[in-house]
Amino acid sequence: MHELTDSDYDILHAMENIVDGIAAMWGEHTEVLLHCLDSRNPSIMKIANGHITGREVGAPITNIALVKLNEGQDVSKAYITKSPDGKTLRSLTTVIRNKQQQAIGLLCVNFNLDAPFQSMIHSLMPTIGAHCDHGVTAETFARNNDEMMHSSIENVREQVTTDSSIPPSKKSREIVTRLHELGIFDLKDSAQIAAKGLDISIHTIYRYLREIRAH
What we know:
Elements: H1 6-14, H2 16-26, E1 30-36, E2 43-48, H3 63-70, E3 79-82, E4 88-97, E5 103-112, H4 117-124, H5 128-134, H6 145-161, H7 171-181, H8 190-198, H9 202-214
Antiparallel strand pairs: 1-2, 1-5, 3-4, 4-5
Helix pairs in contact: 6-7, 6-8, 7-9, 8-9
C-alpha cells in the first residue's frame, strides 16, 4: 500500500455509485463495500447493507481482504467466509487500480448464504406484483448499434401505433419524440435508420427534431 493521491481518490469516489448499484440489484442480503487502500488509513469508504457484518464507513480492512490483495488476482475466485455473528458468506474481492497500475482500493461483495430462501427471492424481486399488473418493460439486448436502433424504433413504433389516445396525424411526431428522449438520435446514422423504419422522409425527421429541441 501507499499514500493515495487526489486522482486516486477521484477514481474511488467514482466507484461509490457502483456499490449502491450492486446492492440495489441483489438486495438486502448482499453487502457491498469499497475499501480504500491508503497506507495512512486503509478502511471502508463506502458500504451498503453493512448490517450483514455489522460494519460501517471507517471500519478497518480485514485480514482476508489483505490476503486477496496479495494473491495477485485482480478478481478473486468466490470464497466462503463467516461474519462476526456466524453468518456464512459467499464473498468476492476485486482490486481497483490507478493509471500506474497501483492497487488503490478493493470492491468487495459478501452474500449471506444463511438468509431464508423466501426472503432472498423477495429481495431479488421486490416489485414482482407491480410487474404482473402493469407488464414488464422490454429491454433491448442488441449485438451492435444498428440492431439496437432498429429494435428501439420498432418497440416505440408499436407502442405509439397501438395507443388510441394519439391521433393518427401525430403518431410519427410522437415516435420521433420518444426516440429523442431515449437518446437514439445521438447515435451515428440514426436519423436515416429511423426515416427508413418509419417510412417517412429524413427531412421530416430533422424538422421534428428541430421543433422538439426548440422547446
